[in-house]
Design brief:
Length: about 500
């Protein structure tokens, strides 16, 4: 028996013991009696491009997120939660499939999840759950049938920037309540509520109480210019708008009388869309807010400091629903943590970066104390996503870089070549500014982290690609190249073309 199978059996037995020890009817903190033998409802809320520390519950001093803060007060806040990647669609397909991106065959931006990949939503649906999605989708056509109802936000993926105001206010949250109201009654439900906030471009005048430059909290790897602060203020506006919709979701569940046996999980797909955050494997890209409210089972005001990964969500939600997680899943069932288990399930997390607008191939392993990053293409700079290149913060950084006013940390997005290896003490250096890979005092740590990374790669069958992909945009301007095709063909189509000695290009390109 493999260690993974053994671990799953142990956790399943623990859950059975907990279930038997509980009465079939439980009085919650509100005094409401809940039949805990009923299958719980599950509401998954996914923010878009929101960093973990840009939520009030995680200590941000200025952002107003009263509903998320209350969600944390009523449930459990995870402080060491991570994503498998810091790129939009690969993160989502990894979550729904329970696989690391390299095993999804959808590891690059806008590659659809293939038909042969199983999802936890499909398993819930087969087990009698009603399943619905409202908001941002971005996972490819084969996944659509996993949802009984799919209210996909309409948006235009234009070559020089998205326009997401084609549906409602552009938040992606407009139809969340509609989905919940129209669900069939009398059966358990699962909803995937996906915000488009706070994805670029940022729009002005979306708030009656907009944030000002004085509210911006700028990490040290970005300069504190007026343009950078303005970008952050607009980003904050979108987070607060999303928070308002989350409050409406909680209120609707209350109105329907299903709150106590409904599990709400709030996460983000990746970190904020700023330089050195999104599309990187620093914590600004892969660390996520992770809040769980489930009054029937989760102790209010609880905090968990265990390492958890988004690859665990599929196994965990299936287990919560009384189903056995699929053997093909890469993640672990961490549902015992929700019931107060303090044992460590992970002693490390693994994350990866692939093509997102620009080619890249980077891997990271992170423990509670150290982060090791391996840049397999060090000849390529750590260029932010194309939408970042076209906006205020990056343009300001380019100007400051030319003027010679950026410090060493702020210049690293322009660095060519970049280091092949990066090692950080994330406790002493949470912003990952001091690369210890060349520090002889950390030679043993470096070697140990190398071994851990190589071991994970071998176990999960993570292999180097045989070819590189051409960039979809010019790294200097953020304007499209002839290789940008939308909708983007699947991995199978790209690989077939490469085997035939072809490179796919946009036949309508006029550069």
């Amino acid at each position: 028996m493999s260690f993974k199978k053994y671990s799953r059996i142990v956790r399943l037995l623990l859950l059975l013991i907990l279930a038997v020890s509980c009465q079939s009817k439980k009085e919650t903190k509100k005094g409401i009696v809940v039949n805990t033998n009923e299958k719980p409802n599950i509401v998954l809320i996914i923010a878009d491009d929101v960093s973990w520390n840009d939520i009030g519950a995680y200590g941000h001093p200025n952002i107003q997120t009263p509903n998320l803060d209350e969600l944390a007060e009523d449930g459990m806040r995870f402080n060491q939660a991570f994503l498998t990647t810091s790129s939009c669609s690969p993160s989502r397909t990894s979550i729904i499939s329970g696989l690391y991106p390299h095993n999804t065959d959808a590891e690059q931006l806008s590659w659809p999840l293939p038909e042969d990949k199983k999802t936890f939503v499909q398993q819930l649906k087969n087990a009698g759950y009603w399943t619905g999605l409202a908001g941002k989708y971005h996972m490819g056509d084969p996944v659509r049938d996993d949802f009984d109802v799919l209210l996909e936000m309409q948006w235009e993926d234009a070559p020089i920037g998205l326009d997401r105001r084609l549906t409602g206010d552009g938040s992606g949250c407009d139809e969340w309540i509609k989905l919940l109201k129209n669900r069939p009654k009398g059966k358990p439900f699962f909803t995937w509520l996906a915000s488009f906030d706070a994805h670029r471009p940022f729009y002005e005048n979306i708030s009656d109480e907009p944030y000002g430059l004085e509210d911006a909290v700028i990490p040290p790897y970005m300069p504190k210019t007026a343009s950078v602060k303005k970008d952050f203020a607009l980003y904050y506006d979108e987070i607060s708008r999303m928070d308002r919709y989350i409050g409406e979701v909680v209120a609707e569940l209350d109105a329907q009388g299903v709150t106590d046996n409904t599990l709400i999980l709030f996460i983000s797909d990746n970190g904020r869309a700023f330089p050195r955050d999104k599309t990187t494997l620093y914590d600004g890209g892969i660390k996520t807010p992770w809040i769980v409210k489930w009054p029937a089972m989760v102790m209010p005001g609880s905090v968990n400091n265990n390492l958890v990964s988004s690859v665990d969500i599929a196994s965990t939600l299936m287990s919560v629903a009384g189903l056995k997680p699929l053997e093909v899943f890469d993640g672990e069932d961490i549902s015992s943590l929700l019931m107060g288990d303090i044992r460590e399930i992970h002693n490390e997390i693994y994350a990866e970066d692939h093509f997102h607008d620009f080619e890249d191939y980077t891997r990271a392993v992170r423990t509670h104390k150290f982060k090791y990053i391996k840049n397999y293409y060090p000849d390529l700079p750590n260029t932010p996503s194309a939408d970042v290149l076209r906006d205020r913060a990056w343009k300001s950084m380019v100007k400051e870089n030319k003027a010679g006013t950026l410090n060493e940390a702020q210049k690293r997005c322009f660095e060519v070549p970049r280091p092949e290896e990066e090692l950080f003490d994330v406790v002493a250096d949470p912003y990952e500014l001091n690369n210890l890979a060349q520090n002889k005092e950390y030679t043993n740590v470096l070697n140990y982290m190398r071994v851990r990374l190589n071991t994970i790669r071998e176990i999960t069958k993570d292999y180097m690609p045989t070819v590189r992909m051409p960039d979809d945009f010019f790294r200097g301007t953020g304007l499209p190249t002839k290789y940008r095709i939308r909708p983007r063909p699947s991995k199978a189509v790209y690989m077939k073309a490469r085997k035939e000695g072809k490179v796919l290009i946009n036949p309508d390109f006029k550069g």
